[in-house]
Design goal:
single chain, 148 residues, alpha+beta, Nuclear Transport Factor 2, Chain: A, six-stranded mixed β-sheet, two-stranded antiparallel ribbon, 8 strands, 29% helix, globular
């Protein structure tokens, strides 16, 4: 499989699954036993985690727009940096509970490394910029502000 095809598959994950809410595309892009490594969480197996995350974001921001900023590939790995932008008009479900709609425009970034086998993503490592998102939603003080 070519690096260009792998890059196109990773791009589809952001644009179709997150950007358009086409959860069925995840079944074409991700292996059924895909291993997902997220910062601060144990690995998850399968496609459902990605589908849940896309649903969570699209529920909170129905106008979610995805922009692929950078993408590099070597061998069976693709590294992507993408930005999600939208308006927080729906509830955002978090481990601590639901965050009610704020009406705020938000923007957040994610860096992701995807490993491919036989035309599908079989393993991913991702680092979302949750701090920036939480600051924009008013859940954390802005960077540089004093709390004391």
């Amino acid at each position: 499989m070519s690096t260009e095809r792998n890059k196109a598959m990773s791009k589809r994950l952001y644009e179709e699954v997150f950007g358009r809410g086409n959860l069925g595309a995840a079944d074409e892009i991700l292996d059924v036993e895909c291993v997902n490594h997220g910062a601060g969480a144990p690995p998850s197996i399968g496609r459902e985690q990605i589908k849940r995350q896309a649903t969570l974001l699209r529920t909170a921001m129905p106008d979610l727009e995805v922009v692929l900023n950078d993408q590099f590939a070597e061998g069976d790995h693709v590294v992507s940096r993408w930005t999600g932008r939208g308006t927080h008009t729906g509830p955002l479900t978090m481990p601590s509970g639901a965050v009610p709609p704020s009406g705020r425009a938000v923007s957040f970034d994610e860096i992701r490394i995807d490993r491919f086998e036989v035309a599908r993503i079989v393993e991913s490592w991702f680092i979302p910029d949750r701090m920036t998102l939480w600051q924009q939603l008013g859940l954390l003080p802005p960077s540089g502000s004093s709390t004391g």
